[in-house]
Design brief:
The chain has 5 helices and 6 strands. It is of the alpha/beta class. A 6-stranded parallel sheet has the order 1-3-2-4-5-6, sandwiched between helices.
């Protein structure tokens, strides 16, 4: 089946679905999630992309993408992430900041998720694809911290590389 599917809260994701969870800032960045969805589905349209989105109960009509407006349910997004870690992949991307107050804490809740992923990687061997845009405001600091805390974890510089690695993880788990 070549249906391209994106699952966003409050829609349920089946446990065991080959899925890629898109983790990273939802506010203050360009729509990198849309780009990631297109990259992933351009290579393998059968992979379900789980993506926390913000905004009300309005379903988009573009293609087979299912988007809900309204506040993202963090518990649901966390559930998506946990399912994807076990049966698919997590694509964690820190994009360049756009439209975010200069004194605002950009990417803070995502840094918390990154810490959880690092612990899973170190203690359970659950791999994830991590990328940091070179123009991300804290790119150098994040890279140095991650390399010190999780030696050997690849850190990609492009969204394409993060998506490719995530697709590879999904296919490896399906074997």
């Amino acid at each position: 089946m070549n249906e391209r599917r994106v699952v966003c809260p409050p829609e349920e994701l089946e446990v065991g679905s080959p899925a890629i969870f898109l983790g990273g800032p939802t506010h203050g960045a360009d729509d990198w999630r849309q780009e990631a969805q297109e990259l992933i589905h351009g290579i393998d349209p059968s992979i379900v992309v789980t993506s926390p989105q913000r905004g009300g109960p309005k379903v988009s009509t573009s293609g087979n993408h299912v988007h809900f407006d309204g506040d993202c349910d963090r518990r649901q997004a966390s559930r998506y992430c946990n399912i994807a870690l076990k049966s698919g992949a997590v694509a964690m991307w820190f994009p360049k900041r756009t439209g975010w107050p200069a004194d605002g804490d950009y990417g803070v809740s995502e840094a918390h998720l990154l810490g959880r992923l690092e612990m899973n990687y170190l203690h359970s061997g659950l791999e994830f694809a991590l990328g940091i845009d070179p123009a991300f405001s804290k790119a150098r600091q994040f890279r140095l911290d991650i390399q010190a805390e999780v030696p050997g974890l690849p850190i990609y510089r492009s969204l394409m590389d993060v998506c490719l690695k995530s697709i590879l993880y999904v296919h490896q788990k399906a074997e």
